[in-house]
Design goal:
alpha/beta; six-stranded parallel beta sheet; single chain
């Protein structure tokens, strides 16, 4: 290896996960549905990282048409965001229960995919080996983005040849379309796991 440095996979020393009975019951209630975690929120101080709610509603409907069961995860103060999104989906997805951080770990590790912006839950999913579709606006994905083959980064404002966006500008993330996100999601899901049928009302 160059300079005598050997290659090794990344390891993250998380504490042993203790299952929450409440989250286990929620997951069991999904039955055979293909769970996809969708996290629409961001910290209030970094709302420029937030993809529009209307786009998330379109995404949830599109994922359901592909046979997936979108689960909208949320943190403190993000309940209204999830309610607004689900009110426009016609029952195509469902809200996760309120969760502690360990409970969110438990739920994410049972999901087949994570979709969301540059947030803590996205990094939590990625560090647990969950395939991730990461949506980036004016923050630099080469610094903040996930690594490896099990992720797709959508960051049109950072394409080669374009001037870098101003950090904090809320407009770049709006360049991402729901169709692009769904295509990226389908690339990461094993073909046999996606029946391409209407998902059960979950």
């Amino acid at each position: 290896a160059p300079l005598g440095v050997s290659e090794r996979s990344l390891e993250f020393p998380f504490p042993t996960l203790k299952a929450s009975a409440r989250i286990s019951r929620f997951l069991a209630s999904l039955g055979p549905a293909l769970p996809i975690a969708v996290h629409p929120g961001t910290s209030s101080r970094q709302s420029h990282k937030r993809w529009p709610e209307a786009r998330y509603s379109q995404l949830v409907r599109g994922l359901a048409r592909e046979g997936c069961c979108p689960i909208l995860t949320w943190g403190p103060g993000e309940e209204a965001i999830v309610r607004n999104i689900l009110s426009e989906t016609g029952g195509a997805g469902l809200a996760a229960p309120s969760m502690t951080l360990p409970e969110m770990r438990q739920l994410l590790t049972r999901c087949r995919l994570f979709i969301g912006g540059d947030t803590g839950p996205m990094h939590l999913a990625w560090t647990h080996g969950i395939p991730v579709v990461a949506l980036f606006g004016s923050t630099d994905p080469s610094i903040n983005g996930p690594l490896g083959d099990h992720c797709r980064i959508l960051a049109p404002a950072w394409q080669p040849g374009r001037p870098h966006p101003r950090r904090g500008d809320p407009s770049p993330i709006q360049e991402i379309s729901p169709a692009e996100v769904i295509r990226a999601a389908m690339e990461l899901l094993p073909p046999a796991s996606v029946p391409n049928l209407q998902a059960p009302q979950c």
